[in-house]
From TrEMBL:
It comes from Celeribacter baekdonensis B30. One of its GO terms (cellular component) is plasma membrane. NCBIfam families: fliQ. The chain crosses the membrane at residues 12-38, 50-69. The gene is fliQ. This is Flagellar biosynthetic protein FliQ. It is a multi-pass membrane protein. Belongs to the FliQ/MopD/SpaQ family. Keywords: Bacterial flagellum, Cell membrane, Cell projection, Cilium, Flagellum, Membrane, Transmembrane, Transmembrane helix. It is found in: Cell membrane; Bacterial flagellum basal body.
C-alpha cells in the first residue's frame, strides 16, 4: 500500500469520526451550558443536576442519530476499506 493511500484513508476516517461525534458533542455542550447557567442563577450546587440532564440529552441524540452514524460508517467501509482490502 502506498503511503499516500494510507494517509488519505486515515484522513477520511478521522473526518468521519469528527462528523459522527459532532451532534453528541454539541448537545452535551448546550446541555452543560444550560444546566450551569441554571445552577449559577439559583445557587443550587447539586452534582446529579449536572450529570443526569446531560446523560439524558446525549442518549436521546445518540438514539436519534444512530441511523446517520451507521450509514456514514458503512458507506466509508464499503467505499474505501473493502476496495483497499481487495486490492482494487
Amino acid at each position: 500500500m502506498d503511503e499516500m493511500v494510507f494517509y488519505d484513508t486515515l484522513r477520511q476516517a478521522l473526518w468521519i469520526a469528527v462528523i459522527i461525534s459532532t451532534p453528541i458533542l454539541v448537545v452535551a455542550l448546550v446541555a452543560g451550558l444550560v444546566v450551569g447557567l441554571f445552577q449559577a442563577l439559583t445557587s443550587i450546587q447539586e452534582m446529579t443536576l449536572t450529570f443526569v440532564p446531560k446523560l439524558v440529552a446525549i442518549l436521546v441524540v445518540f438514539w436519534m442519530s444512530m441511523g446517520f452514524m451507521t450509514e456514514a460508517l458503512t458507506s466509508f467501509f464499503h467505499d474505501r476499506i473493502i476496495p483497499l482490502i481487495g486490492g482494487l
